[in-house]
Amino acid sequence: MSGRADDPDVSLLRPYLMTSGRTKPVDHTIEIEAQVMTSNLGATSVQNLTFERRDIISLCRRTMSVAEVAAMLKLHIGVARVLVADLAALGYVVIRRPEAETPQDLRMIERVIRGLESLR
Amino acid sequence: MDSNRSADPVLAPKKPPAPVKIVIAGGFGVGKTTAVASISEIPPLRTEAVMTSAAAEIDRTGHVPSKTTTTVAMDFGCITIDDDVKLYLFGTPGQDRFGFMWHDLVVGALGALVIVDTRRLDDCYPAVDYFEKAGVPFVVAVNKFDGMLNHDLNDVRWALAVSDEVPLVTFDAREKLSVRDALLAVLRKAFSRAQTRTAAP
Ligand SMILES: Nc1nc2c(ncn2[C@@H]2O[C@H](COP(=O)(O)OP(=O)(O)OP(=O)(O)O)[C@@H](O)[C@H]2O)c(=O)[nH]1
Ligand SMILES: [Mg+2]
User: Which InterPro entries match (chain A) (predicted)?
Assistant: First the structure.
């Protein structure tokens, strides 16, 4: 049974508190600023989901970060991460994670500077 | 149950924006939440961040006992930069014992703004130390609590023992444009740091 640990369907069934003793079934290290957007599959599967997973699918019809998901649903950020990662593994949400090279990316930094400069 | 079914497709079929972030640190009550609130396009949200062994795993410093769990309140907000980029601001209390949470927050950050209150300068030491050691570009921003500074900026620099390379600015956390300018100082520092890195052999 533990041999199926990397099966996303299995991971979706397990309660959060069971995760600490396990090797990562899904990549749960999603950054708190990663963007979460409900996919078409997620939107049409919402009736199959319950509780927080269902709430996340409804909420993320408007794209938002993992941190926002946690704050709006009053979930601990660690729980929000696990749930979002599981939903992403099932294709119910699309996530966009930050690029690792961003801090070195001159064009990106310039772009953010320009964006902020235009704030009034 | 069936009546709740929503068969309509997701409204926005485009891909999510690229997230970038700046960390806002400093001691208790220095104006972190105020700064985020002044400039964020959403009311600041709060999340109780629990760092568990999962977070410890990715802490490269290896200082963290694997089962450590703690909860800290963190306030955050965001700014739409353009069609494809969204800037997040994370305000975090700068306490030593939360050091291991910072890795999580700080990894991938463009830079950090360390807010100081000149009446309690030493509250910001942990943050300054952390960003120096972690190699994160940062700016020290003195919050003008009474509309005036009771310290000369050079005295502040001396008291904090930060090098001349660390930009020091004054700002008012309650004013949007003032916060914007402090963030721009962080980004300019980040830019010159990235330039140096890129130019390095
Ligand atoms: N006069 C004045 N008051 C300020 C300024 N910035 C913040 N304050 C006030 O100082 C208090 C603390 O500000 P916060 O923004 O909550 O500080 P914080 O750093 O988020 O505090 P913690 O999250 O508790 O660590 C609030 O009552 C603010 O209204 C400022 O520039 N001038
Ligand atoms: Mg606060």
Answer: DUF742
